[in-house]
What we know:
Elements: H1 11-14, H2 19-28, E1 35-44, E2 47-52, E3 59-65, H3 67-72, E4 85-89, E5 95-101, E6 107-112, E7 118-124, E8 128-134, H4 141-154, E9 157-163, H5 171-182, E10 187-189, E11 212-216, H6 223-231, E12 257-262, E13 265-273, H7 276-279, H8 286-293, H9 295-301, H10 318-325, H11 330-366
Parallel strand pairs: 3-5, 8-9, 8-11, 9-10, 11-13
Antiparallel strand pairs: 1-2, 1-4, 2-3, 4-5, 6-7, 12-13
Helix pairs in contact: 4-5, 4-11
Amino acid sequence: MIRLEDLGWNDFYAEQTPGELELVEFCEDIEPEDCFAARISRHDGQQYDVLTAGGTSGTQFRARLGGVLRYRAGRPQELPAVGDWVVVRNDVGALKTVMAVFERQTCFVRQAAGQVIDEQVIATNVDTVFIVTSMNEEFEPRRLERYLVAVRAAGASAVIVLNKLDLADDPDAYLARAEAVADGSPVVGLSALDTSSRGLDALGAWLNHGDTIVFVGSSGVGKSTIVNRLMGAEVQETSGIREDDARGRHTTTARQLLLIPNPENPGSLGVLIDTPGMREFQLWAHEDEAVEAFDDVEALNVSCRFRDCAHNGEPGCAVQEALDSGELSAERLASWHKLREELEIQKARQAAVARRANRSKSSRSTRPSKKRK
Ligand SMILES: Nc1nc2c(ncn2[C@@H]2O[C@H](COP(=O)(O)OP(=O)(O)OP(=O)(O)O)[C@@H](O)[C@H]2O)c(=O)[nH]1
Ligand SMILES: [Zn+2]
């Protein structure tokens, strides 16, 4: 029988009375006994799947957003996301109502590049992020550093997983290079294809009961293979299998929050979050995103006479020429300037977060941990 604690519930949430709930009780005359706590396991369009206690893998309901919550959320970031603990009203019928969101312990946001920069919440209340890379050409310490910064910014801890150990002539060299940038985060080498105990068991050390984990990393490094092996079943979409049926509808409604057994201790369960957003986490290299979103402006950029042209009236400016010819609109150029500016701010903010994380690391390790036994 699954309990809330198995799904990641702990004192941090138990001690909260979400503010919205007080308001809801007040204006909608709700009794707390009409509500239950649940975790958002999936979000699609206007509706959510929520997971709560009961059964062998939790009890799942469909739910919609309550009106008060919808109108009270000032910013989209305040709306529930996968991983959130929420208060659900036990409405009669299949569709329940999400009344309030518990304060988040950790939060992954993505800066969505576009006309306006906005933060998008990808997943919340994640304890440990397994940053997966492989012992081959894909290995890139700079990328690891970027992941580590983002994991710290989210408030989670990182474990670096060097997969495909079977392919490496000198695994220790990879481990050493990863450790050089790991900044104290554990580094573990393994082969997801290795069926002996030297394989995935190594991950068990960071899969405490009730912990919420995610796997991130570039395409092809072996995330699905690792997850499938841990689950002991093919739960992930494997590449090549289409989700759409002939009518173009999704035939699989894969859950984005799964209970995952610990390979070292089968009685112990972790909670795995696997949203498409977390999968594309590598796009957090904001610089790359900007270049992609504004590839037309960036292409002109390289044609300017001066390499460091700011496109503000410099002679020989290809951007100015494109403006004059009508090839580029003034609005688009203004958005590009704005984006560049915000990227600078973002970079400075990330650096500050990284510095702060470094400084507080020693104090963090001595603080009593919140829910370990
Ligand atoms: N040699 C070797 N191959 C592996 C290992 N782990 C995974 N692979 C192979 O690498 C390929 C990609 O693995 P996936 O698990 O699909 O990679 P992924 O990270 O989930 O990729 P995306 O779903 O695109 O994000 C598959 O052919 C796996 O069989 C390993 O430890 N050693
Ligand atoms: Zn220019």
